[in-house]
């Protein structure tokens, strides 16, 4: 079980942990009380995953360069 | 030979040049004659001073021609000259009068056929591979869901469009595009710079540092893609800390950057697919996970309650638990009275068996035998006693024989002698003591007699008493009813009717003798 708090997990961590929790619940080899705790954890992980999935925003910008060719800022990119 | 000698000697009609004039004439002639040439040869030594011009030798197996490529031209070249490279150079011949040299000023360089280019590429690959840049262990894992994706490509054209389009379809993300030339001489340095530039950005800065890079270019000829074969690009890609996907050309085109990138995508679109997962699938997965979890939990609870029901069914009723013992109790209590009776019968039987053998004759027999024994003993008692007495007597006799009276008698004699001697001594002592005392007593008696009043009486004195008391005064004598006058030879009573006392000696109070 990962020690990272759920709210700090990356999507991938949260997803892997969710998968593990679901698998454990489905195998049914945990005590009933533990399975309730697992269920709660699974619900929190699912919420975390959904939050990360909602953060799906497209934002495209092109780097602008200064005279030396270093990144200076951005401008909108109109690539169609 | 004469002619020449003559000429030399004469020297007259041959015009005379200064060095510069001749040098200039040669220059004009060479430049005029070779104003535009194509020459094929192998690149020899190449030098690139800071001026930006490129100097190189072109050679074949017998000759060498120096070449120079001015800065502006060099920057335009798609193919940069490298030692050992087979090229076709286009340019013009000129001289360098200062050093009596001639050279070719190169306007364009092309590899002498694809084979030459590939040979060179193989050489680079071997070198970088030897350095370990292609090592699979160096390859970094791509992030599962990058937040910011940096794309190094041309800002216009189908490639960036394809990438953005596919990203939007799968999982819209933040995208930073670093515009670069994707062909020509500027391509390699710009691409290398872009990769380095993205790596220099800081996480969470004004320009967020991407967590994934895509270096992309559409399809083209080998020469078009050549920039991505350049060492500088390969090294920049290898040095990138940010995981990097290369997507250059079509699927069949492989460039040097593909060997060092962390992942090679066959096309830019494929790069976008490698970069992000499909959001809808993830949403479905997460939703499905929730459903599976709920289902599993439900099943689990159902399973438990089923098990509980099963167990409680299997649990026997309390009455059932009691039935068997109760039945046993019944059976046993039924058997108890008869068992007692049987036990009693058995004991009775034993008693009768025992009492059967208990008859007076048995006792009498025992008694008889005991009496017999007693008689025997009694018979033996008297002889035994007398035997014992005689034995003791004999022993006594033996002892008394030993017991002699002589010593006792001797002892008695001695002791009685001692006793009589002591008695004698005692008598003597006693006698002596009595005599001494008597002598002392006599002396004292004599003394007393002399001191006593009776001696005085003898000398003519009397003692007058009245009423039992000695009277010493005339008054007292006159007062008395009767007087008694004691003389040495007796007492005379006067008056009072009292008779004369016959020499009644009133014994002095202390006249006793101890003897």
Structural description of this entry:
- The complex is a heterodimer of chains A (80) and B (515).
- Chain A is α+β, with helices and mostly antiparallel strands.
- Chain A has a two-stranded antiparallel sheet with strand order 1-2.
- The longest helix of chain A has 23 residues.
- Chain A starts with 10 loop residues before the first helix and ends with a strand.
- The mean pLDDT of chain A is 84.
- By secondary structure, chain B is an alpha/beta fold.
- Helices cover 53% and strands 17% of the residues of chain B.
- The chains are: A alpha+beta (80), B alpha/beta (515).
- Chains A and B meet through helix 1, helix 2, strand 1 and strand 2 of A and helix 5, strand 7, helix 6 and helix 10 of B.
- Strand 1 of chain A pairs parallel with strand 7 of chain B, so a sheet runs across the interface.
Kindly report the spatial arrangement of strands forming the biggest sheet of chain A.
1-2
How much of the sequence of chain A is in beta strands? 15-25%
Overall number of strands of chain A = 2
Distance between the first and last residues' Cα of chain A: 45 Å
**Physical arrangement of strands within the biggest beta sheet of chain B:** 1-2-3-5-4
Run of helices and strands of chain A: HHEE
Label the structural class of chain B.
alpha/beta
- How much is the average pLDDT of chain A? 84
What is the overall shape of chain A? rod-shaped
> Structural class given helices, strands, pairing of chain A?
alpha+beta
> Number of DSSP helices of chain A?
2
Gyration radius of chain B (Cα, Å) is 86 Å
Q: Topology, please?
A:
The complex is a heterodimer of chains A (80) and B (515).
Chain A: H1 11-27, H2 32-54, E1 59-65, E2 71-76
Antiparallel strand pairs in A: 1-2
Chain B: H1 2-10, H2 19-33, E1 37-47, E2 54-59, E3 64-69, H3 71-76, E4 86-96, E5 101-111, H4 114-130, E6 148-153, H5 158-170, E7 174-179, H6 187-200, E8 212-217, H7 231-239, E9 244-248, H8 256-260, E10 263-264, H9 268-275, H10 279-314, H11 318-356, H12 360-402, H13 406-451, H14 453-458, E11 463-466, E12 469-470, H15 474-479, E13 483-487, E14 490-494
Parallel strand pairs in B: 3-5, 6-7, 6-8, 8-9, 9-10
Antiparallel strand pairs in B: 1-2, 1-4, 2-3, 4-5, 11-12, 11-13, 13-14
């Amino acid at each position: 079980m990962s020690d990272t708090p759920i709210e700090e997990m990356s999507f991938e961590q949260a997803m892997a942990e969710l998968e593990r929790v679901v698998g454990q619940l489905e195998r049914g080899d945990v005590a009933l009380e533990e399975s309730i705790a697992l269920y709660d954890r699974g619900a929190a992980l699912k919420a975390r995953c959904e939050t990360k999935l909602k953060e799906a925003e497209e934002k495209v910008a092109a780097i602008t360069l200064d005279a030396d060719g270093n990144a200076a800022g951005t401008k909108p990119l109109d690539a169609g | 030979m004469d002619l020449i000698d003559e000429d030399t000697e004469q020297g007259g009609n041959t015009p005379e040049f200064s060095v510069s004039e001749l040098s200039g004439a040669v220059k004009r002639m060479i430049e005029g004659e070779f104003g535009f040439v194509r020459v094929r040869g192998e690149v020899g030594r190449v030098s690139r001073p800071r001026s930006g011009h490129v100097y190189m030798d072109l050679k074949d197996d017998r000759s060498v021609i120096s070449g120079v490529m001015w800065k502006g031209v060099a920057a335009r070249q798609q193919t940069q000259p490298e030692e050992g490279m087979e090229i076709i150079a286009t340019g013009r011949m000129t001289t360098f009068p200062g050093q009596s040299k001639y050279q070719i000023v190169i306007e364009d360089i092309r590899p002498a056929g694809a084979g030459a280019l590939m040979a060179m590429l193989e050489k680079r690959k071997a070198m970088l591979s030897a350095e370990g840049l292609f090592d699979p262990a160096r390859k970094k894992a791509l992030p599962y869901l990058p937040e910011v994706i940096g794309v190094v490509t041309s800002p216009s054209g189908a490639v960036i469009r394809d990438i953005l389009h596919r990203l939007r379809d799968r999982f819209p993300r933040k995208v930073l595009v670093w515009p670069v030339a994707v062909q020509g001489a500027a391509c390699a340095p710009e691409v290398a710079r872009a990769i380095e530039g993205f790596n220099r950005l800081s996480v969470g800065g004004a320009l967020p540092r991407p967590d994934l890079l895509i270096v992309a270019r559409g399809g083209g000829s080998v020469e078009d893609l050549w920039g991505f074969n350049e060492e500088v690009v390969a090294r920049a890609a290898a040095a990138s800390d940010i995981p990097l996907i290369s997507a250059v050309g079509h699927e069949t085109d492989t460039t040097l950057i593909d060997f060092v990138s962390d992942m090679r995508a066959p096309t830019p679109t494929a790069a976008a697919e490698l970069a992000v997962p499909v959001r809808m699938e993830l949403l479905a997965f997460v939703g499905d996970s929730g459903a599976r979890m709920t289902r599993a939990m439900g099943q689990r609870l159902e399973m438990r309650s089923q098990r509980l029901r099963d167990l409680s069914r299997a649990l026997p009723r309390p009455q059932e638990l009691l039935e068997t013992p109760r039945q046993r109790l019944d059976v046993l209590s039924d058997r108890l009275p008869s068992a007692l009776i049987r036990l009693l019968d058995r004991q009775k039987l034993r008693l009768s068996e025992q009492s059967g053998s208990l008859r007076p004759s048995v006792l009498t027999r025992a008694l008889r035998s005991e009496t017999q024994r007693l008689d025997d003993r009694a018979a033996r008692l008297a002889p035994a006693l007398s035997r014992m007495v005689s034995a003791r007597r004999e022993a006594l006799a033996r002892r008394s024989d030993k017991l002699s009276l002589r010593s006792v008698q001797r002892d008695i004699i001695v002791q009685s002698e001692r006793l009589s001697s002591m008695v004698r001594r005692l008598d003597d002592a006693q006698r002596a003591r009595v005599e001494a005392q008597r002598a002392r007593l006599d002396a004292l008696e004599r003394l007393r007699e002399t001191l006593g009043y009776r001696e005085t009486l003898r000398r003519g004195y009397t003692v007058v008493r009245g009423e039992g008391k000695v009277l010493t005064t005339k008054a007292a004598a006159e007062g008395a009813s009767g007087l008694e006058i004691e003389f040495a030879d007796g007492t005379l009573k006067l008056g009072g009717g009292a008779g004369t006392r016959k020499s009644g000696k009133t014994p002095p109070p202390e006249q006793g003798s101890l003897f």
